[in-house]
Structure formats: structure tokens, C-alpha cells
Design a protein that fits this description.
With 152 residues, the protein is mainly alpha-helical. The protein is built from two helices and no strands.
Length: 152
């Protein structure tokens, strides 16, 4: 059966109702009336079922149009959360790498200072042996205190 528009369905339903009224009026005996009304009533039932099915399809399409963008927003939010978690993990790794590099640089600084002190020792001994004054020692460089974040 071809799909009819809303106005065509209404026109068809009116025809069926008119047919039922005329059938009821032209019936010769009361026994013939149910048989004559049966076919138009079947057609009316088919039309009502068709209207209900169309309404369900329209409701489903409308729900899809309404919930489609909402689902898309939630999907984007989920992807954003995943991306933020990945960025946080990368920042943690970078922080650990910087901390490791800072530790290596401190060790290098200590080795450098010890090397200078070791190289100066023979020079200082030679000065004393020749009667020159000993060089004034510099105080070790002050290291800034590291602030530790408050614990939760």
C-alpha cells in the first residue's frame, strides 16, 4: 500500500465512514448490516494502524534528532577527559625527567667544585712553601632551600 499524506489519510477515513453510513442505510435486513459494515471497518482499522506506525516513526526520528547532538557532546567530553589525562601523564613524566636532570646537574656541580679544590691544593702548598700568603677561601655557594608543597 502506498504511503499517503496526513490529509489523504483523513480523506480516506472520511470515505470509509461515509461508506459505512451508506451501507447501514441501504441494508435491507438487519442481518446484512454487519457484513456490509465489516469491509469498511477493516479498512478503517488499517488506516488507524498506518497512522500509529507513522507516528512512531516520526517520534523515533524526532528523538534521534534531539538526542544525536547530546550524544555527540558527551562523546566529545569523554574524549576531552581522555586527552586531559594523557596530558597530565606526560607532564608527570616531564617533571620526573626535569627532576632527574636537576639531580645530575647538582652532582656535576659538586664534582666540578671538588676538582677545583683538588687542583688548587698543590698551588696553595707551593705558595706557603715560597712564603706567599695563602689565598682566602671562598665560602661554598649557598644553595636555596627547596620548598616542599603542603601535604594533603
Amino acid at each position: 500500500m502506498p504511503e499517503l499524506s496526513g490529509s489523504e489519510l483523513l480523506r480516506e477515513w472520511r470515505k470509509v465512514m461515509d461508506s459505512m453510513v451508506s451501507a447501514a442505510g441501504s441494508a435491507g435486513s438487519p442481518a446484512e448490516v454487519p457484513r456490509q459494515l465489516l469491509q469498511p471497518m477493516k479498512r478503517q482499522l488499517e488506516l488507524v494502524q498506518d497512522v500509529i506506525e507513522r507516528e512512531r516513526r516520526v517520534q523515533k526520528q524526532l528523538a534521534g534528532l534531539v538526542f544525536g547532538p547530546v550524544d555527540t557532546v558527551f562523546q566529545l567530553l569523554e574524549e576531552t577527559g581522555t586527552m586531559l589525562r594523557s596530558q597530565a601523564q606526560e607532564l608527570e613524566a616531564a617533571g620526573r625527567a626535569l627532576e632527574h636532570a636537576a639531580g645530575l646537574m647538582k652532582t656535576q656541580a659538586e664534582l666540578f667544585e671538588r676538582s677545583i679544590a683538588a687542583l688548587r691544593e698543590p698551588v696553595d702548598l707551593a705558595r706557603v712553601a715560597t712564603g706567599l700568603e695563602r689565598r682566602a677561601r671562598k665560602s661554598p655557594a649557598r644553595q636555596p632551600r627547596r620548598r616542599t608543597p603542603p601535604r594533603k
